[in-house]
Amino acid sequence: MLALIKIFAYIRKEFLIQRSYKFAFFFNFFSVFTSLLTFFFINRLFGSRISSHLEPFGRDYFSYTILAQAFFTYVGTGLGGIAGRLRGEAMTGTLESLLVTPTKMRTLLLSMGLWNFGFASVDLFLYLFFGVFFFKIDISQINLLATFIIFFFTIIAFSSLGLISGSFILVLKRGNPVNWLVSTLSGLLGGVYFPVTVLPKWLQAISAWIPVTYAIKGLELAVYQGASLASLSSDVIKLALFAIILLPLGIYSFGYALRRAKIEGSLVRY
After folding, report:
1. Domain containing 201: what range?
2. Which residue, 140, 135, 147, is CA-closest to 47?
3. pLDDT for 146-159, tens place per residue?
4. Least crowded by CB within 10 Å, which of 16, 36, 70, 203?
């Protein structure tokens, strides 16, 4: 019960902070819409030229990219969210007081995660709202169970990478190679802006080691084709393996970085 109270208190604190910046919310609203327009006009320009790569998904370039972009923006919160929160707390001088309180670390990380994903849900909703009601994207065939399971394993995998990313912030303060490397490779090679089949074979071999590759492929098929879990079993199993491997690695690296920062007394530095 005490842990729940602390989680609620943290989320309430972040909500009050965000509410004080009203312009930022409306700017975010505008930025999502302009992002949709960008891909809409790109689709009008040359969308038909890569139709062969989109045949398995049964949708045009615009529909494919918007779903992938909305999904990647949401799960990417797990990657950059924790590191961003730690960096923000350090710059405001509250990181040390936050980490040395009697609050268990898992409670604090859960609080950060819930707030980050809750806030990211606004962007996800905006993408879906504009996509469905303004640009008439058809998601009537969606397989909700398969979609949920893909979200679940991808969030675990990216949150685990977020813990590793956060460990670099605790130790290095600035410079986050994990966040840059994963987000760049995921965007370029993971199928966020175009299907992986567009890439040459040697780059496709690299993309096979990126979790979001299987997540986006599975999601596109589950949402647009209503693909079942059985037909997506290969992608789902690979996502689950990424989650199983990365979660303990993330927990260990973050715990190690936190112990080192406490010993060195560097929590107050940024």
Report:
1. 2-264
2. 135
3. 999 999 999 888 88
4. 16
